[in-house]
Amino acid sequence: xTNRYVFMYASVMVVVVALVLSLAATLLKPLxxxxxxxxxxxxxxxxxxxxxxxxEAIDLYEQYVKESKVLNNSGEQVDGDAFEINLQxxxxxxxxxxxxxxYIADVDGRIFYIVPLRGTGxxxxxxxYLSFNEDLSTIAGANFDHASETPGLGAEIADxxxxxxxxxxxxxxxxxxxxxxxxxxGGAQPNDNHAVDGISGGTIxxxxxxxxxxxxxxxxxxxxxxxxxx
Length: 230
What we know:
Layout: H1 3-46, H2 57-64, E1 65-71, E2 77-78, H3 87-91, E3 100-107, E4 110-120, E5 125-132, E6 139-146, H4 160-164, E7 182-184, E8 195-197, H5 203-218, H6 221-228
Parallel strand pairs: 7-8
Antiparallel strand pairs: 1-2, 1-3, 3-4, 4-5, 5-6
Helix pairs in contact: 1-2
C-alpha cells in the first residue's frame, strides 16, 4: 500500500464523515429546536406553580400564558416575538437597545408577570425565570439553571431548596425604590425581604445570581413602575 493511496483513502474518509455529520446536524436541528422550546415552556410554567411533562407542556403553556410582550428600555411595547428573543445576544447590547421579553400568565384569575434572566456563574452561563405577583414586586416563583457549575456547590442554584427561598421576596422597598434580592454569603438576616442564603462553597455562583438579578431586572424598572401607576 503506497503512501499516496493511504493519503487518498484518509482524505475521502474525512470528506464522508464531514458530510454525514453535517447531514445529521441538519436533520436533527428541528427536533433540537422543538425540545428547547418545550423546555423553555416548562421552566416558565414552573415559576407559576404548574408542573408539566414534555407531552403536556405546549398545551399547558397555551392554557396559562395568556400574553407575551417585547419591551424597550422605556417599558413600552414594541414589535417582536418574546419567545424568539435570545437573551444572551440582547445582554451584549447597550441597555437602551435591548429587546426585553415578558410573559403574562393567568392561573385561576391570579395574574403573574414572568421575566427571563441570564448571567455568569463560576464556569459558564447561568439563567433563569422569575414570576411576580400583580404588585410587580413580590416574587411568586423562581427557576434557575446553569451550564457547568460544580455539582454539590454552585450547581445547587438549580435545586428546589435554593429556588424556594425567593418566594415572597421583593424587588422594591417600602418607599418604591428598586432593591433586588441579593444572595448572601453566610446567610441572610431573618425577615429580610431582599435577601436569601448563599450556597456554601459556591460564593462565585451566588455572586453571579445576585448580579444576574440586579442587571436583569433593572432594565424592567420602567415597565414595572408604569404598570404600578395604572
